[in-house]
Write a structure and sequence with these properties.
Strand content: under 5%
Order of helices and strands: HHHHH
Number of strands: 0
Number of helices: 5
Largest sheet: none
CATH class of one domain: Mainly Alpha
Helix content: over 70%
Structural class: mainly alpha
Radius of gyration: 20 Å
Distance between the termini: 46 Å
Length: 128
């Protein structure tokens, strides 16, 4: 039962396969089967997962939900206002490991967003 619910939640993330060898499909039909929101969501999953892990870590350290989210967003976006800082050695280690991971994931997400946009423009121009 739980697996069924998880399957329903993850179903939009699974790419739908299109048989490109089927010559009866037109370019417009192939393009219509591409789900761009799903592609953008998949590209954002890495940073979202890392940020949620940092939020969970801060919650387990005793922060309330708002402070945990605030700390994670400020840290992950490298803004670092300085009003909150990791107190223990473990928190500092998690921040030191998490920061390069999330910066890399955010960079890759933005690059993938750009690639998705370029591919979309190429496909739409080819369809004209």
């Amino acid at each position: 039962r739980i697996l069924g619910m998880i399957g329903k939640l993850l179903a939009p993330l699974v790419p739908k396969l299109v048989d490109l060898s089927d010559t009866t499909l037109t370019l417009n039909e192939i393009n219509s089967k591409i789900s761009y929101p799903r592609r953008y969501l998949r590209a954002a999953l890495g940073p979202i997962a890392i940020m949620l892990a940092l939020v969970g870590f801060r919650l387990s350290a005793g922060d309330n939900v708002v402070d945990a989210i605030y700390f994670s967003v400020v840290t992950c976006t490298t803004v670092g206002y300085g009003d909150m800082a990791p107190a223990s050695r473990l928190e500092r280690c998690v921040a030191m490991v998490g920061l390069p991971l999330v910066v890399t994931a955010l960079t890759e997400m933005l690059a993938e967003f750009d690639r998705i946009g370029i591919r979309r423009r190429i496909r739409e121009d080819s369809a004209l």
